[in-house]
UniProtKB/TrEMBL annotation:
GO terms for molecular function: DNA binding; DNA strand exchange activity. The lineage of its organism: Bacteria, Pseudomonadati, Pseudomonadota, Gammaproteobacteria, Enterobacterales. SUPFAM superfamilies: Resolvase-like. Residues 12-162 form the Resolvase/invertase-type recombinase catalytic domain. Pfam families: Resolvase. It comes from Salmonella enterica. InterPro entries: Resolv_N, Resolvase-like_N_sf, SSR_resolvase. This is Recombinase family protein. PANTHER family: DNA RECOMBINASE-RELATED, DNA-INVERTASE FROM LAMBDOID PROPHAGE.
Length: 194
């Protein structure tokens, strides 16, 4: 009888979903489907969803629902045993590993563990997680830093080639359409497209 009641007892979890605008393969819907299946396979019930769509993961600033998750756990407003997250990068691409560790520790201190469902970290081996998680967090942050450097280099390259980078050209400047051989074709009027 004891085994049967334990089988029927579902673990109460929340899910955290995040998508920055440039990662469509990690859309909110795709993450939610993956986490729903994970919860079903592991005798869990998702009782709360926190999502930040179109938000960068480099800090907690501006991530309204991430901050609400932390506040709900710390104040006891939500009663859960774990937070399901697709992977480490969805929890955040922190530029400082200590900041990532801070939020993880806040949850852990209040009895809530983070489960990175797509990372395949062994739950029964905290030693492996202690070694692996900082490396995964660093890699997630490094991706963001490297992308920033590449985007900046791309803008610099276009400026060096004479292309204007930004919104509407400054007063007195006009846009010029050029062909594939860099020969001018015509001056574009405001609002006119190539």
């Amino acid at each position: 009888m004891g085994d049967e009641s334990q089988k029927n007892h579902k673990i109460r979890v929340a899910q955290y979903l995040r998508m920055s605008t440039d990662h469509q393969q990690f859309s909110i819907d795709n993450q939610a489907l993956y986490l729903k299946k994970y919860a079903e396979d592991h005798n869990m019930v998702i009782v709360e969803t926190y999502d930040d769509e179109g938000k960068s993961g480099v800090s907690a600033s501006g991530r309204k629902n991430f901050n609400r998750l932390i506040e709900d756990v710390v104040t006891g407003r939500v009663k859960i045993e774990a937070v399901l997250v697709y992977d480490v990068s969805r929890f955040g691409r922190w530029q400082d590993n200590d900041e990532a560790g801070h939020y993880s520790y806040l949850l852990k201190y209040h009895g809530v563990r983070i489960i990175y469902c797509a990372e395949n970290l062994p739950d029964e081996s905290p030693e492996i997680q202690m070694l692996t998680l900082p490396a995964l967090r660093y890699a997630a942050g490094a991706f963001s830093r490297n992308l920033s450097v590449k985007v900046f280099a791309g803008h610099v390259n276009l400026v060096k080639r004479g292309y204007y980078q930004g919104g509407i050209p400054g007063y007195g400047l006009r846009r010029k359409l050029i062909d594939n051989n860099n020969r001018p074709k015509m001056i574009l009027c405001p609002g006119e497209r190539k």
